Amino acid sequence: MAIVIGILFTIGTYLILSKTLLRIILGTSLIGHGVNLLILTMGGLKKGGPPLLGLKESLFTDPLPQALLLTAIVINFATTALFLVLSYRTYNVLGSDDSEALRGCDDE
Known about the structure:
Blueprint: H1 2-16, H2 21-43, H3 64-94, H4 99-103
Helix pairs in contact: 1-2, 2-3
Transmembrane segments: 21-44, 64-86
Main location: membrane
Pfam families: Oxidored_q2
């Protein structure tokens, strides 16, 4: 699982360093998925009952990694949606999604 997380972070970093806005958005989304897998892996697999107060079990699973993972998924979805809307609006208004052209650094 650590190798998959490393590959997701590597591909995400490579895409963020590119020039087009769509690749940058995909890179941030891939890094978000890598973070989700990292949280899930660090939480570990614990065997036991559900963390309910009425049960008399001595072993129970920790609900914190699942809560953090759910929060991270929602935040990743929201930021990706926001970035896609901003990228679409930028392309419609300015006619380009190249970050070099948006900065005005044309080599002409």
